[in-house]
Structures are given as structure tokens and as C-alpha cells.
Amino acid sequence: MKHLLHNPAYKMACDQFDAVAQFLNIPENMRERVKAPKRMVTVSIPVRLDSGEVKVFEGHRVQHHLTLGPTKGGLRYHQSVELGEVAALAMWMSWKCALADLPYGGAKGGVAIDPHKFSMGELERITRRYTSEMIPFIGPQTDVMAPDMGTNEQTMAWMMDTYSHQIGHAVPSIVTGKPVSIGGSLGRKEATGRGVAFLANRASDMLKLPDDSRVIVQGFGNVGSYAATGMAKFGAKIVGVSDVSGGIYNPKGFDFQALEDHVARTGSVKGFSGGEKMSNEELLIQPCEILIPAAMDRVITDKNAGKIQCRILAEGANGPTTVEADAILRQRPEIFVIPDILCNSGGVIVSYFEWVQDLQSFFWAETEIFDKLYRILGRTLDTVLKESRKHNIDHRTAALSLGIQKVVNGKAIRGLFP
Ligand code: NAD
Predict the structure, then answer these.
(1) If one looks up domain 189-334 in CATH, what number appears?
(2) What is the end-to-end Cα distance of the chain in Å, rounded?
(3) How confident is the model at residue 212 (pLDDT cuts 50, 70, 90)?
(4) Alpha carbon nearest to ligand 1 atom 40, residue
(5) What is the pTM of this model?
(6) Each residue of 353-404: pLDDT tens digit?
(7) Which H or E run contains 110?
(8) How is the chain split into domains, by residue range?
């Protein structure tokens, strides 16, 4: 898929894969089979806007591999969405699912729009038309979508409704991350952020950091806000938060309840008076014990990796650290990296629970969901750390190699058709 390599996220995903393939000594004839996306679908989405004008948007879905079960992954609405980025995110989903032992391949979807610029009615029409264009390629046993940046429970409800109309009966298992009232799982909305907080807190205990550690969160959306709430509950001090409008910093810690109230009221951290205004770039390099990037990919780069001042880098976002930044972080062993495919895997793990509950029409209590989630996250963290120690490799290489090896083994044992 050389034509995708112009996209920096796809190039980064391929560079990571190539390095791990070298480390694992994956046979040459297997490398391209494991790396290349299986299916890439691009559709045009004609939509009537409220003004009466018809606009055509571009939507994508990439299914990375189909070896271990249906594909699974989020749907992103963001102006920068393009096929290469979606393919990179699908590849990362593959390694993430395999690392957590979920019976899925990775996928990702996206529509190149800024969702804030559209009314609810327009977003509904965009979502329904995108879903209907994708119907030949998705299904509970083929490809299951979930929310990601710019999409939410409501988006998933529209998708489920559109698919169910086509099939003729309600099919909750076509998406995860939908409202509980139509077959969603308790805990799914909070799962990614709470998982990030659980892992950061575990790492903090391992490093014997104080309970009132200082935390900075970039991106106060679904993942970032629940991660911050989780850390605050563990007793940590939230000293920095940001969103697309910029950041706020207070080295003494915010009044977290006041911050949450402000965001609930205004929809943004902008204008919160509890700290000093700061750009996203500056916020990332302020002193803290725990840094949680939870917005865009490639925000920790060779320009700032030497300057970040945390002890734990808990990657809530997908792909926040570039390959060049990783090389710098390897020279800074004082920073404990919890790599994205482990750190934010709480979302897909509870999505898996949601899918299983929908297929069985048998729903679990919230305590059962979080008990199971934390058991899987704790076990996976231990496995990654053991692998890292055994081979003297960084945490990301350890996590990626466990995930990639599982997909390689699946392909090898199933053989090549025909
Ligand atoms: P979201 O849309 O709920 O929130 C995104 C946040 O990032 C918002 O606060 C937004 O203002 C901010 N943001 C957008 N562009 C920014 C920029 N250029 N600089 C700084 N902040 C910016 O999205 P989300 O679901 O919380 O996803 C955040 C990240 O977590 C993404 O990388 C996503 O792929 C990853 N992720 C999400 C889930 C999930 O369950 N939602 C699961 C795994 C990984």
C-alpha cells in the first residue's frame, strides 16, 4: 500500500510494524500479509444541508485483517480524516485487540468533516447516509463500529437504526458504544478513560509516586475527561487540561468540580478561570508526574520529547508519540510509557463485552463489567512489562510485538487460501 505512505500516521504505523517485524524475525513472505490492510472502502456521501444545498462528503472504512474474527474499530468525524490516517488507526486497532486477546481484527472509519460546524439534523443525515453506503461491508460478524473523535452514543444510535431498518429487525450488535436503553453496555462510555486512569494509577504505585501526583490531560473529551475524573478519584491533582480551544494550567491543582461544572455548562475548558491560559504545545511540557495525551495523534515529537517533564506517559489517544520521539524517550528511562494499544484498550474491551451481551441478549451489572475490565488490563500490563524485561525492550515494542505475533500465528495456522 505504498500510495498511503504519504500520510504521516500511516508511515508511522508502518515504521513501527517494520521495526517489530525485524525484532520478531517474521518471515519476509508473511510481513506484507500482516501489514497491508485487507479492505479499504471510500464512499461519497451526498447530504442535503439545512440551507437546502446538497454537499458531498468523503467517508472511509478500513478493515485491517479478518483472521481472528470480525473487525472492530471506531468512527471518527474530523476535518483531517483521510484514507491513510484511517488505515493507520485500523492497523493499531489490530494490535490492540490481539494484545487484549479479543477475537477481532482492527478497523477504523472516518468522515472528513468538522462536526461542530453542522446541526444535529445534518449530522444525523451524514451518519445515516454513511451507514447505508457501508451496509454491504459491515455486520455483527463482519465489522462492528464504535465512537471515536467527534462521534458519540447518538451517532451509534443512528447507525444502529439505519442498519436495523435495512435488515428488518433491531440489530444492536452492529455497533458498540450506543446508549444503554437500546442495548449499549453499562460502563462503555467511561471505559476508555477509566481504563487509562486505572493503568496510570497502577504504574504510579509501581513507581511509588505520591497519591496526590500532578496530572496533565491534553483533550478533555470522552477519554480525557473520564481519565481526569478517574485520576482525581484516586487522589491525584489535576494541574493542566486542554481541548481544541487551548489549555489551562494551575500548578496547585484545579478545583476539579468547578472545572467539570464549567465544561458541562459551556462544552469546553475555554474561559475556565481556575488557572493560567496556555497553548496545547506549552501544556505538554509543564512539570507533572502523569501526562495523558487524549486528543490527536503525533503530538509528542522529536521537538518536545526531550522537554516533557512527567514520570508516566499514559497514552489515552491513538498514536500520540512519533517514532522519532520514541527514540528520544528510550534515552529517558525515568519516563514510564504506557503505550496507546494498552493504555486506551479499555474502550475496545468493554465494546467487546457490549457485543457479547448483545449477541446473547443477556446484560451484565456495572460492577461485573469493571471487575472484568480491570482484570484484563492488569494482566495485560503485567504481560507487557514481563516481555519488556525479558528482552530488554521498551514497553511499546513489547506491547506491539505481543499483538503482532498473535496475528502472525493466526495467519500461519490458518494457511493461505487457495
Ligand atoms: P472526543 O471527540 O470526545 O474528544 C477529543 C478532545 O480532543 C476534545 O476535547 C477536543 O476539543 C480535543 N481536540 C481536538 N483537536 C485537538 C487539538 N488539535 N489539540 C488539542 N485538543 C484537541 O474524542 P475521544 O473519543 O475522547 O478520543 C480522543 C482520543 O482517544 C483519540 O485519539 C481517539 O482515537 C482515542 N480513543 C478513543 C476511544 C473512545 O472510546 N472514545 C478509545 C480508544 C482511543
Answers:
(1) 3.40.50.720
(2) 22
(3) very high
(4) 347
(5) 0.97
(6) 999 999 999 999 999 999 999 999 999 999 999 999 999 999 999 999 999 9
(7) strand 105-111
(8) 2-171, 189-334
- The half-sphere exposure of 120 on its side-chain side, counting CA atoms within 13 A, is 3
Q: Which three cell numbers stand for residue 235?
A: 487522589
Q: Which atom of ligand 1 is nearest to the CA of 177?
A: 40
Position 245 scores a pLDDT of 96
Q: Answer yes or no: same fold for 2-171 and 189-334.
A: yes
Q: Which residues line ligand 1 (CB under 6 A)?
A: 147-150, 192, 218-224, 242-244, 280, 294-296, 316-318, 344, 347
Instruction: From 113, 199, 222, 281, give the residue whose CB has the most ligand 1 atoms within 8 Å, as the site to mutate.
Output: 222
The pLDDT of 250-256, averaged and rounded, is: 96
Cβ–Cβ under 8 Å, residues 110 and 57: no
Order across the sheet with 214-218: list the strands.
276-278, 246-249, 237-243, 214-218, 290-293, 312-314, 336-338
Q: For ligand 1, atom 28, which residue shows the shortest CA distance? A: 295
CA of 308 to the centre of ligand 1 (A): 20
Q: How much distance in Å is there from the Cα of 220 to the middle of ligand 1?
A: 8
The pLDDT tens digits for 173-197 are 999 999 999 999 999 999 999 999 9
How many whole angstroms from 331 Cα to the centroid of ligand 1? 28
Question: Residue 147 CA: which ligand 1 atom is closest?
Answer: 41
Atom of ligand 1 nearest to the CA of 319: 32
Cα–Cα dist 128/136, whole Å: 14
- 178 catalytic, yes or no? no
pLDDT in tens, 216-240: 999 999 999 999 999 999 999 999 9
- Kindly report, residue by residue over 36-62, the tens digit of the pLDDT: 999 999 999 999 999 999 999 999 999
Q: How many A from CA of 223 to the centre of ligand 1? A: 7
Q: 124 CA to middle of ligand 1, Å?
A: 20
Crossing angle of helices 83-99 and 346-360, in 10° steps, is: 80
**Active-site pick, 35, 96, 108, 237:** 108
Quick: pLDDT tens for 282-296: 999 999 999 999 999
Q: What is the mean pLDDT of the chain?
A: 97
Residue bearing the CA closest to ligand 1, atom 2: 149
Q: Is 3.40.50.11480 the CATH classification of the domain at 2-171?
A: no
Flag whether pLDDT at 1 surpasses 90. no
143 contacts 71 by C-beta, under 8 angstroms: yes
Closest CA to ligand 1's atom 37? 148
